[in-house]
Amino acid sequence: MALLALNNVSKSYGALKVTDAVSLSVSEGEVLGILGPNGAGKTTLFNLISGDVKTDAGEVEYQGQRINALAPFERCRLGIGRSYQVPQPFGHMSVFENLVTAACFGAQVSEREAWDIAWDVLQQTELTRYANHAAGGLTLLNRKRLELARALATRPRLLLLDEIAGGLTEHEAQALVEELRRIKQTGVTMIWIEHVVHALLSLADRLHVINFGKTLCTGEPQHVMQDPEVRRVYMGLES
Question: Of 57, 60, 120, 175, which residue is 20 to 30 A from 96 by alpha carbon distance?
Fold first, then answer.
């Protein structure tokens, strides 16, 4: 049984159909990469999974149960954590306080347990030295790390990553990929939207490509990247 399954999920804004009968699934421990040109509906897909946006049609199933009616905080407490394309920390709070808050409200644990989780996540994401720094003053790389860390502090089984490598240098992106690799080894399942394709390909087990809200191609990374339609739509290459 898939950990998460979307069955013919659709979402429209007026006449614009941003997600059009998309079906996909991800298994426990898998990394599923999501590709598509700008405006393809990738972030909307995440919003439908996390509950930030309600579906117009179709089913969102998590651990075999329909979760369409659940609020974002309820889905988070079931084990669906996410990062956002633009990091959204509490800028006036310290890095450590951000993580304690995420653990208390996302994982629904006691403050004592939240401190332990926050310390573990600080070490996991190489943010220990910045524990007492104001989140709003971090560099882009460390804001991205904090965005990842806040999601991890909710103790997710499924982690949604929205362009976490975007805007980073080659060296910074590689460092972040290595952190994600270690997270994968702990058994956390991931769905990762990314335009830094080489970073995504270094970790993804499967790819799912969407265009204009519809599934274009899905499968093993090497097969998907050689698909003529994917090459034309996403990479601008004619076979």
Answer: 175
